[in-house]
Design a protein that fits this description.
Structural class: alpha/beta
Oligomer: single chain
Shape: globular
Radius of gyration: 18 Å
Distance between the termini: 41 Å
Largest sheet: 6 strands, parallel
Order of helices and strands: HEHEEHEHEHEHHH
Helix content: 40-55%
Number of strands: 6
Strand content: 5-15%
CATH class: Alpha Beta
Strand order of the largest sheet: 3-2-1-4-5-6
Number of domains: 1
């Protein structure tokens, strides 16, 4: 999610060539029908006048021809691309959720399991996004959810939360410090 990939230059160039896109990705959660999913994303974004950047993850989008306003890539550096996007739509994995929160843009989680549903509830509580089960998503519900998160209020709240997020290196160092501190206390006691 934060490592350089072969697609990063191409993604950055495509993003820079137009309005900020909405990112769509499902990571390690393959979608049942890539063709139907891509059609739903394409039609929803066309209805809203938005561009879509789709990261295929473990789903096979290779035989599909996206619309002109849709770019499909394999692996990409989320941390580099997300800040240049208008919103992020993903499956709700903990890592992708953290990267989207640090990017300071609204997020829509289309969950596929209980863990992801919990992250969706966190986004709703923070008022930086919304969520629904992927299996219950239709073009109409996708458009409605995107309209919800693309408001200035969600964008402003997302920027506020991003400022409070720690970067991964700080988080790892803090966790290691806490663990070492706990270990020292246990030996002294």
């Amino acid at each position: 999610m934060e490592l350089a990939t072969d697609a990063d230059e191409e993604v950055a160039s495509w993003i820079a060539a137009g309005t900020p896109p909405i990112f769509f990705g499902f990571g390690s959660m393959p979608v049942k029908s890539p063709a139907d999913t891509l059609a739903m994303i394409s039609e929803a974004c066309a209805q809203l006048g938005e561009r879509a950047l789709v990261c295929s993850g473990w789903s096979d989008f290779s035989d599909l021809r996206p619309s002109e306003h849709v770019k499909v890539v394999g692996a990409m550096n989320y941390a580099a691309a997300f800040p240049a996007c208008r919103a992020v739509v993903h499956h709700g994995g903990a890592g992708t959720t953290a990267v989207s929160l640090r990017a300071g843009i609204p997020t829509l989680i289309l969950s596929m399991d209980v863990n992801q549903t919990l992250w969706g509830a966190v986004l709703k509580r923070l008022k930086v996004g919304t969520a629904r089960h992927f299996s219950r998503t239709t073009q109409e519900s996708l458009v409605a959810d995107l309209r919800t998160i693309l408001t200035p209020e969600y964008a402003a709240r997302s920027r506020e939360i991003a400022i409070r997020m720690a970067n991964p290196a700080e988080s790892v160092a803090t966790a290691a410090d806490c663990l070492e501190g706990f270990a020292r206390l246990r030996r002294c006691g």
